[in-house]
Specification:
Helices cover about 35% and strands about 10% of the residues. Strands 1, 2, 3 and 4 form a four-stranded mixed beta sheet that branches. With about 140 residues, the chain is of the alpha/beta class. Helix 1 crosses helix 3.
Length: about 140
């Protein structure tokens, strides 16, 4: 669901250039989250479980898409807004849980956490087929 929402936000916000990134990601590559509150607690808040493989730049980009989604939801007409569930409030934890996560191959170098990459053996690092370029994570709309 998080992957689909982020992809939908990117395309509906005129950020089509990011389709190439989403073509290389899957729902399994997103960070996870957890809650210790009852399901009926409002608003629904979740602590983010960080994926070690994700760079700060990638995390910031993905959370920027989350923020765009929340802004769009808050600006929508009340009838539309309350017809569906409110967006999750995902809270990063400074010293919260981290998991290795499933790192996809074929991403740009700045998508991967450098410290995590240094901890990989050469075969695993080579299997990632890292694109030796910087990905542009900007959230500026394309103007035609």
């Amino acid at each position: 669901q998080l992957f689909d929402t982020r992809l939908r936000v990117a395309t509906s916000a005129g950020l089509d250039r990011h389709a190439v990134l989403f073509d290389r990601l899957s729902p399994d590559n997103m960070s996870d989250d957890e809650t210790d509150r009852p399901r009926n607690h409002w608003p629904r808040t979740y602590r983010i479980i960080e994926s070690r493989w994700q760079s700060l730049e990638l995390k910031t980009f993905l959370r920027g898409l989350d923020a765009l989604y929340r802004q769009g939801w808050e600006r929508s007409r009340p009838r539309v807004r309350f017809a569906g569930a409110a967006p999750r409030i995902r809270i990063p934890q400074e010293n919260g849980p981290k998991v290795d996560g499933l790192a996809p191959p074929g991403l740009w170098r700045n998508c991967y956490n450098e410290e995590w990459l240094r901890g990989l053996d050469a075969d695993r690092r080579n299997a990632l087929s890292i694109v030796e370029e910087e990905y542009d994570f900007s959230l500026r709309r394309e103007v035609l």
